[in-house]
Design a protein that fits this description.
mainly alpha, binds tryptophan, Tyrosyl-Transfer RNA Synthetase, binds iron/sulfur cluster, 402 residues
Length: 402
Amino acid sequence: MTSTIVSGMRPTGRLHLGHYHGVLKNWVRLQDTHECYYFVADWHALTTHYENPRDTGGFSWDLLAEWLAAGVDPDRSVLFIQSWVPQHAELALLLGMMAPLSWLERVPSFKDQQEQLRERDLATYGFLGYPLLMTADILLYGADQVPVGADQVAHLEISRELARRFNSFYGRTPADAGRREAGLRQMGRREARAYGHLLQRFQEQGDLLALEEAEVLLKDAAGLDSGTRELLLAHLAGKGRSILREPEALLAEAARMPGLDGRKMSKSYGNTIGLRESPDSVRKKLLTMPTDPDRRGRKDPGNPEKCPVWPFHQVYSGPETRAWVMEGCRTAGIGCVDCKNALADRVLEDQAPIRERAEYWAGQPEKLREIAWNGARRARLRAEETMEQVRSAMGLDAAVHP
Ligand code: TRP
Ligand code: SF4
């Protein structure tokens, strides 16, 4: 089976270099080896920003432009906006019917975010149900791997548990039971009785040999089609038919991209460099970064390990420049301005083409709309396949009505 990736980003602002190094470069790389679905999680943004939906709408287009600028490729990956694919809402609704409240309440981010975003009222149904929407996003595409940050791992655990719960409820349909009984009749009475004994041995005593014997029994049984044989075997092994695939977290070994003050780069710390920030502003921010506090003057030696500028060099500079910094800083051979200018040259060299491409895409709303439209069309086709199975497993398809 091909490996499928799903990942989303909330449109709550412009992207910065932390997103680029921590997330987007990984997305771009995954396109070579996986079938990728990348979407703008605009409904997710509403779980916390429901008061200003217009804002998130604008950011959706910024986000798409920035993804394209970073190298996410609409010909190889499916790029779309979540709210354009209504199946996400349908599956989230159905999952909500069987999601235990306790699972949602114990998600760490539920309490944390409520504390952190005190200015917002997050005692809402939508916010509590956020992991259900995320689960729907993933399960709709049969994703087996989900690139996420460490903060999302708990959500993914819920996704796995919900997939399992769904499969155990609805995996075995009444139609399957009918086919199983028909199969047993076809096998003949002796074989059917042998099957019953093996089932008991396996289910009550966990006897693995019984499973093997059953395989042989079913293989030799006359008149069974392969579907019925599989059904009988799965039933004996206590497995439901798997309708929704259990996803796994794919933790990127992303370059740790620090912010200007040494803490994690994050909008809420105000320590970011924007993907589309002007060269002047980028250089100015880098030149005013704090340094090793022991280097009070040009003549005082310093230690890069104690300086927030150093991790930037580790991400951006080649071995020669890094050696020059190490040596020059420790012997006071170079000044901090030299060190920072060398860094700024590299950052700007790297950022310039991305900034230019992002500006280009931001100026092409028609093209962006077309990409989003095509992506949504492809996403809907795949999502609808899953929904047909889901509806049928839950008895919601037209076939069961008179
Ligand atoms: N919850 C993710 C975040 O806040 C965004 C997201 C929504 C997502 N649905 C997803 C990520 C599905 C991966 C897969 O960053
Ligand atoms: Fe930091 Fe560079 Fe100054 Fe050393 S020379 S303290 S690494 S900015």
